[in-house]
Amino acid sequence: MSRPLSRKACQRLIQVSKVPTRRIKSFHEVLTDAVNYYCENGWDSEKSLNAWCGKLRIAAERKTNDKDLARAHLTQIYRRLVVDGGVNKEIGKPKAFGLEKIKPSLRAELDRRIFISANLIKINREQAIDKTIQRFTGWVSSVPPDGTFVIDKVEQKAAIKKDIVQEAFERRRVAIDQGHKLASNIRYIHAVQTGAIALRWHSDWRQPDYDYRPKHKERDERIYLLRDSWALEKGLIKPANGYYDEITAAAEEPFCRCKALPVYSPRDLPDEYLTEKGKNELNRA
Asked: Please, where are the H alpha helices in 19-95?
């Protein structure tokens, strides 16, 4: 059994608990302090400029260091399409259709997208912080030696930090774009591994306010064959509209939300995709 604390020890604990914890300033607050300092004092020394740049860099890194946004978004897409069988629901197949066998490949694709997203976000963050420090340094160099009271501080701070503000938007854009690419690659890997013979292009051009690509709208509902499929090897089908690897893939281009959904049987292809042998096979069946 532990001994009770003495009266003196208890008093010391009470005193320590009353000491206020130091609140960490936000990036905006540090920038406000820096702008106020130079408005009042002007550029006084290289040492002070380096010190303020260091404080701004630390505050900016703290503000933009969101490592989990892309990971959470990508993991959610993986769970919907793979764990919950969403990729099969899209094509009307049972939940377990082909997924267990290829889960390692799909999980590897998720890990790859998380890695790529993290690197893109890191690069964007570093560039945004460097530009912010550059803008701040440029502004300081323009302040008169005795300071200034004629500038609009709000406007000046907005100009200095605009890349930091934009970085948060870019971080979300990276997560969204990589999410489209992950979903598209999961669909493609699943289609190939489960014996698809072609892919049918689907564009969201009908969705209001979607900034679709005209070329992708033209592809809507077009069918592109997959090379080396069992139906192609047997001579049952022909590339009436070309092969999928001859065009940019769904979601390959930035912020493309198109899908390429699998076709598994020659019976589901229009007549122009069938060879004479294919037509005879279907008639016999």
From this structure: 27-41, 46-64, 68-78, 86-89
